[in-house]
Amino acid sequence: MTAGVPLRVLTDAMDTLLRIGDVPDYPPALNGLQVDHRGPVTRIAAAVDGSARTIAAAAAAGANLLVVHHGLFWSGVQPVTGPMYARLRMLFDHDIAVYSAHLPLDAHETFGNSRLLALELGLEPVAGFGRYQTIYCGVRGESDVDTASLTEKLRAFARSHGGDVVASRHDAGRRTRRWAICSGAGASADTLREAETLGVDTLITGEGPHWSAVEAEERGRVILYAGHYATETLGVRALVKHLAATHALPWTFLPAPTGL
To answer: CA 3 → CA 36, 41, 59, 145, distances in Å?
Structure first.
């Protein structure tokens, strides 16, 4: 049985690896250590979301460090009542620390969600995509594949993570020659403009507003929506696998599909 690793050793390693202090993000992301514990860490759990479901699963798995992509405070400052109280109560009762990495994980050259999804689909990233301030949240590249075949490969991946794929309208026999991937909520006005500027014909993302499908069709682009949750399962899993191997700790991935 492992004696454990001090939490600070693990958080310092992730802070450095992901450049937590340097990568810009939205304020509610609150990247880094969000909840402390007594420790030491004896098992790490990885999950997409910091939710009651994943906290309960971490406790059941005997993990006392939960690493997530979406942390506990996305809705901003709020009273510690209701669901927020319940989450924190579970964390304290089971001595579970929480570490969150949002855009620092998306932008990472090895563990980025979009990069790993590209490799999962047999696509080779050659440049960044989805610019946010000083970073790229996604990746892009070139190919010559049947868009329908690419859609089916993406659908198989999404379904393995509790999701599915919706494709914006396009003609049969269409081919994808310049693609981009921006995981999560990656179909925005900014990414559609960027796709048009770069000549990207197919954008793979998690979700987007209804108008994005209308815009895509009228601009001669295709968007493949594979689910916010499904497209962001790969990064946190790879990060925790690496962290656990480096520090000789057991780890587990906690699936908790949201339906989106």
So the answer is: 19, 8, 18, 50
